[in-house]
Amino acid sequence: MLKVKNGDLDKLGQLFERYKKPLYGFFYGLTRQQDVSEDLIQNTFFRILKYRHLFREQAESNGGEFRAWMFHIARNVHFDQHRKKKLISDDLENWQDRIGHTENKATEIQQTEELQLLAVAMDKLPLEKREIILLSKYEEMKYNEIGEVLGCSEGAVKVKVFRALQELKAIYKQLERIN
Amino acid sequence: MEKAIADLIAKYNEGLADPSEVQLLEQLIEAGKVHLTQLTDLNHLHNQVVQLESAKPDLSVDDRFYQMLAVEKQTHKSAPVIPMYQRMAIAAGLLVCGFMIGYLLQSDSGEKEVNQLTEQVSELKEMMMLSLLEKESATQRLKAVSLTSEMDQVSDKVTDALFATLNSDENVNVRLAALDALKPFVKSGKVRSGLIASIAKQDSPLVQLALADLMVNIQEKKSVDALKQLLEKENTPKEVKSKISESIEVLI
């Protein structure tokens, strides 16, 4: 990223190739909409390009610094999109959307029943809790990095993950009983 | 303590922990005394989430990204980023050129405009000097200080900046250069009193000696007290003390 900041824009292509999948997974996990997730990736990299001069490195050797910065931007991009969407559509529509996509997902991805149930449970989790679990997944459970993204301490991140997992577990058990 | 924590974890893993114990567990997690991996059920769930197959983006994402990058590269090439001080230097240069052309074309008329332009040029030089003084590199700050030699008159802003440099710049050479730059303005009472006040603030022997020399040259008797203070300071080197004593004798 430092090279990009200093004008070597080709290097951004490498970063894009490395992070487009985790970023897409993060956005898809939050929105469940393919086209929206793709737009959000585009917007994230647009902001990275636009604000590249603001990137400050400390220890970029393992890519951690850039990843935290990128997810920080990604969260803002999603937050802006989510707010806009809220303004133009009512909650009922959102719910219908999400239920529809959840069903599609169960058929389109061939996974074990257990994992399918887990995916449905994830969808039922409140946005904030879903986000922290997705961040822990795509930040490879590096809690200090997630702390940088969210602007809180590593301990606070762990507690957030703990609470989110507890709720996920409760939803999962509930679904298991219904099935 | 450790046993109590182990018991609590075991209780939680068996699903027997009550709300107050869960709260205690949260505090221990926050303090780093309990790791999420120790909570078997949750850890298993977490690992499963990680295993959940991620959706993959469509190829159109690549197209759009590389298109955006290409556009940015083009604009980046056509508009290179020039540092602020260089921009100001170019602006000043252009103004000087404009001034000279104007002067050649109509040397008889428009004396007023010429004066205005000269004023603008010196204002620009001042701005450039002030912005260069902010630089991290000592060479740049030296450049800034030397710019004052090209100015016939300086504003209070410039002398204030020079004093700030003389009193607090980390580099001795820059401080000495600031002192040199102030010499032409010693006729001003404000500059003289500023220089006297600066004596006590210096800890470098070179600057102390240079100030003492200057005081002798301009015959500033008011500086005797400040010089005496230097003599009383424990950390003033012997050589400097003897030189300052000489200076004080000359001044009295």
Task: Tell me the structural class of chain B.
Answer: mainly alpha
Query: How many distinct beta strands of chain A?
Result: 0
In the CATH scheme, what's the topology name of the largest domain in chain A?
Answer: Rna Polymerase Sigma Factor, Chain: A
End-to-end span of chain B in angstroms?
77 Å
Mean pLDDT figure of chain B: 84
Number of domains of chain A: 2
Give a quick account of the main beta sheet of chain A: strands, pairing sense, barrel closure. Answer: none
Helix segment count of chain B? 13
Counting DSSP E segments of at least 2 residues, the number of strands of chain B comes to 0
Shape, principal axes of CA atoms of chain A: globular
Order of helices and strands of chain A: HHHHHHHHH
Helix-strand pattern of chain B, N to C? Answer: HHHHHHHHHHHHH
Poorly predicted runs of chain B are none
Note the overall shape of chain B.
flat
The parts of chain A where pLDDT drops under 50 for at least 5 residues are 105-110
Please indicate the percent range of residues of chain A in DSSP E strands (runs of 2 or more). Answer: under 5%
Quickly give the CATH architecture of the largest domain in chain A: Orthogonal Bundle
Descriptive keywords:
heterodimer, A: 179 residues, mainly alpha, Rna Polymerase Sigma Factor, Chain: A, Arc Repressor Mutant, subunit A, 2 domains, 9 helices, 0% strand, globular, B: 252 residues, flat
Describe the structure.
Chain A has two domains: 88 residues, Rna Polymerase Sigma Factor, Chain: A, CATH 1.10.1740; 68 residues, Orthogonal Bundle (Arc Repressor Mutant, subunit A). Helices cover 80% and strands 0% of the residues of chain A. Chain A contains nine helices and no strands. Among the domains of chain B are: 50 residues, no CATH class; 83 residues, no CATH class. Chain B has 13 helices and no strands. Chain B is flat, with a radius of gyration of 34 Å. Chains A and B meet through helix 2, helix 3, helix 6, helix 7 and helix 9 of A and helix 2, helix 3 and helix 4 of B.
